[in-house]
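Complex record, two chains
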Amino acid sequence: MAEVENKQIIFKGYIEGNPRETDMEFKVGKKMKMEAPKGSGSLLVKNLYLSCDPYMRGRMRNFHGSYIPPFVPGSVIEGFGVSKVLDSDSPKFKPGDIISGFTCWEEYTLIHKTDQLRKIVADDIPLSYHIGLLGMPGFTAYVGFYEVCKPKKGDCVFVSAASGAVGQLVGQLAKLHGCYVVGSAGTNQKVELLKNKLGFDEAFNYKEEADFDAALKRYFTNGIDIYFDNVGGSMLDAVLLNMKNHGKIAVCGMVSQQSLSQPQGIHNLFNLVIKSITMKGFLQSDYLHLFPNFLEDVVRFYKQGKIIYLEDVNEGLESGPVAFAGLFSGRNVGKQVISVARD
Amino acid sequence: MAEVENKQIIFKGYIEGNPRETDMEFKVGKKMKMEAPKGSGSLLVKNLYLSCDPYMRGRMRNFHGSYIPPFVPGSVIEGFGVSKVLDSDSPKFKPGDIISGFTCWEEYTLIHKTDQLRKIVADDIPLSYHIGLLGMPGFTAYVGFYEVCKPKKGDCVFVSAASGAVGQLVGQLAKLHGCYVVGSAGTNQKVELLKNKLGFDEAFNYKEEADFDAALKRYFTNGIDIYFDNVGGSMLDAVLLNMKNHGKIAVCGMVSQQSLSQPQGIHNLFNLVIKSITMKGFLQSDYLHLFPNFLEDVVRFYKQGKIIYLEDVNEGLESGPVAFAGLFSGRNVGKQVISVARD
């Protein structure tokens, strides 16, 4: 039986602040048998695309109170990916199938938990989109916008980290819904993309704003109905001052909060009371019954040319650490993907 | 026509921190004609009971972004009251009627806005309860608990400022709903009342707790489903650490936040994301369609002996400033009322 070398990205040990390239290590792992052992129910896959997602920072911390356990120091990093089945001991999959779901940051993975894996039906949509537009980030945008924000036509919507994997879809869905949409991002290039490619009504570079409150007042003269929050911190604090009565805040992420042990203070929560604001944290995994509707709607929008999706693809498994660390400095433009193999 | 002296409590000028007795002034106002002028649609009333409510602090600040405008310096303080109609130019009310609604802190008031006034039907419920149990605070507890928290039997409920005008009813409604209920208060006397008179399962004196997180863990080994927040600040921060997944926080007040310009920072909002928590500010005025249901339910519970209501009654209009300032140091035990006249 064929045995092959398996290149891997290893999680070195728990961190406190933001992930750095040096918190991960590229190495050649043990030789691996190219089979899914009989009776194991597992799949042997070749990983094609791996997903860099901000939530993974939480798994690098020694914190066990979250919805997903921390990584194990010295082990291969886990994450979403698009993979090709090489051998299958599961009746649901056969060699040659392309799947998306949880895999590991390595060339070949033996996947034991197969219930959440999804078979990808070949069409003209790029395979990597199944960890972005049609994967967890896209689904997060979809349920966050429609289910958590419950938008109405004409609503004034603000999206932070607006060119990111989630934000770019939120903004486009909001435009399709008839909303006025403003996004913030961290470079002028991203601001241009938001306005000229992604169809946002307005966008601004938060790094060039000394006063977030003043920046928001410039774009929302009558206040904000919906804030899709990907960052937390001082932007959230400024947004609270600019919400309309009965406004809604979907709290999707707090990527600006580098430290779990000393997060920044939010000072303007009294606005929740005086303006009857609802602020709701959510996890896409609570809405999985809507996944088929999501796929149907977003695939249709995409095929009709009503939405586009920006990706930032790093070539080669070795580029994983630098790509992942870059998420937290805003290096990526659009959804960050690692391309491991083309087929 | 009879003209009488009219004693009044005057709002002296805008404040920053908590109200002090000296921010208000007792004086004898202009002589007043004992009539509701023809064609004015107004009512002349004699005020019997006046309500001291924490939201009134907001009206003492020079801040115009709230749901209710600030008081006018030099003018009589406005608030909820129970009053007797002496003369009426409105077809809806006649002399002798007892009403509850917005009036002023004085002996006699000419009320021009009569739409929100409610006629009280005489029964064996104390008149003053119409600004407490059966008034705005009681209604706030009712809609906050049932509509905002949407409780289930068996839920673990925490109430801060639990012996106050709102909190004491929230806790009793939660017990009637089959919940486990813990309250916090600021004196050992209040803690005793919560446990022995109001039927809370547990209660603690927050002033004797060095570590709110540890205190909450003592009473909620498996976490909190519902937090009815009357105080904000560091208690809210500790609660966020102890919420269960999909928990709900009804933000009713932030009485601990003395300063609007420098409110305390809340550091643990990342829990909203990792636990899918909903945090909702609300105003009772958004739910007025439920007022008849509220009255029916709460009057029934009261008459059945299933709930009680604690009041702290100060005698005489002159006692208004001291009674109101006392709300913010926790001097009051139960709903703070000023008794101006018995009939």
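Note: The first strand of chain A starts at residue 3 and ends at 11.
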